[in-house]
Amino acid sequence: MARKDSNASAERPVVVASNRLPFTFKHTAKGLVREPSAGGLVSALEPVLRKRGGTWVGWPGIDVWEGESIAARGEAYRIRPVALSETEVQRYYHGFSNRTLWPLMHSLAPQARFDARDFVHYEEVNKRFGAAAAEEGEDAGLVWIHDYQLLLAPAEVRKHLPDTRLAFFLHIPFPPYDIFRLLPWDRELLRGLLACDLIAFHVRSYAQNFLDCVERTLGARVDKAEMLVEYGDRSTRIRALPLGIEFERYEALARAAPPPQSARERVVLGIDRLDYTKGIPERMLAFERLLELHPEHREEVILLQIAVPSRSQVAEYRKLKRELDEIVGRINGRFATAGWSPIRYLYRTVDQQRLCGIYRDADVALVTPLRDGMNLVAKEFVACQVEAPGVLVLSRLAGAADTMREALMVNPYDIDGSAETLHRALTMEEEERASRATALRRRERRDDLGAWVTSFLEEAGVERPTLAPLQGADFSAWLDNFLKSYRLALFLDYDGTLSPLREHPSKARLPPRVRKALIACAERNDVDVSIVSGRSLADVQKMVGVPELTFAGNHGLEIDGGDIPHFSHEDLVHYRQRAEALASDLERCEVDGAWTEHKGPTLTYHYRAVPENRREQLVEDVRSNIVLHGYQSRDAHCAIEARPPIGWDKGRAVLHILRTRYGPAWSEEVRVIYVGDDQTDEDAFRFLAGLSTTFRVGSADTPTAATRRLPDVDAVRALLEWLAARQSKQS
What we know:
alpha/beta; Rossmann fold; 4 domains; 9-stranded mixed β-sheet; 8-stranded mixed β-sheet; 24 helices; 21% strand; elongated
């Protein structure tokens, strides 16, 4: 049984972050007025916040004027507004959230629009949400972020609160890999989510899609059986937690609703927010087909379609409204008689009391979205079946289909199939209707909104996940096919890759087991090992102490060893005097434990020992000095590299070694693996993209162009041991 983490005490406050606050605000002559927002999320989370305390972070939906307060006296929890400009509303919310993510996540790629300007605003707004949640969450037991508008916010929270429990729930579908990778910013969004300890989805298929995407897009290590992800030095639990409804409330509203007006027609009910994901046109066409195939339903059955206005400022939604108007007019014009119209179409909002009465009195609920995260309409209909039971016809493409097994399932794109299923629902015997409805009601009552909240908080309270250490099976899955029948060119950084990072480079000794594995790789007749380091050539050769290898020092400006002729970049001669002058200036910046490493043609200024509050100005001064001397400034781990601006880096050094050793067609001769932990290794990762397997070692917080991540030096050692022991190509 999973243990609870003491840091996730049920007594500690909770911070909730969602796009909107749990209130609706409006300006009046008497000032700012607020009313509680309707909706399951508010109903679910408010009791938790009232009990444990905490903060709800969100956008008020309007501009709050100077002197106005959105808070009320005596509240059990805080309200933290995040203001949005008009441009941000258009680009972050209407733009990237609803014109890009919404259709793509619903697997409706042709509807998606990709605009880099929208993403810039989405990124900026997410940073503000994340910073606000982090500020409110310093003493919280849990920061709980919601939905697709805030996919990048977890990374910002994690930056400020590295140890706080962080969870995310996605209220819409997560698409398959081939759909999600259409997004130009897929890597950024996945990295943002993987800052969480727990990510939950409505159903297992969405969770599996996510696992597939992080494995194939980021090269994350995934345990699909346990639903765990390891990305760099962080692990995340993935769970399927289907959202429920306030079952007893809907049931009570249905019992209290006024009795139906006398009517001779039977009712097929469709109720949706006006959205192209809901399949309303297809539903109407299926009803039309029903009347064609089964004329006995004419003048006996109506389709009552309620479409709640939504996002009317978005062109796609206005187009959908016109399309529905035309379909309704055509079908009614075709089949209507003097006393009967087949479709009754209401484009309006209906209050909950009346809606529950409509649910109760409907003979069939036709819930047929083209794609839906869950679909609570199906659950609300079931809760309101307190009298003669109706039949639920449900799209198999809705998340609710995973659990509402007693519904009649349809493919909404199959118009004929939907029509025949609707006919079956209308002609079903009462005994079967009652049996199906009873099972559905029992499950939805048990798995209601309160049960969902409890389940989520229990999952969020489980100890932080860890995967077993990397084993041969992991490397085999990643590399067997890649290396099959090829010679291997293995490139390795030193500090942070073969040896753990130390306060002083002189202390970064090669661990004995790593040395042994390195020698075993070098002794194979089908592996060539090169060390590519920012250290000077002599220094890295001394630290590794395996002379048979090839060494590239000073980020490849100097190369020697193995069968590679000695190489020293021809332009270095022009920078000897500049290097001495720069070193003299940098020495004057050696304060608070900072020091300068002299490496011949390059220098490294180390500031790991400098207190955090002193670093910013010091680093700025050092960068300025480097540039003044005609050098390039490059960031490293708590250090700044000063390099001659001669267009040479680790990527070019790798190319030099590959071309020298294997010829111009090297990519046909060998397979390349490169392992590094530093920003300077990114040059090699970018150069080798698509031509190799690359590994970035260490923190998950840093974006990388590498194919995969390894958590630490122990994982690198495990990789080397596997490479040394694997079956040779000759075998």
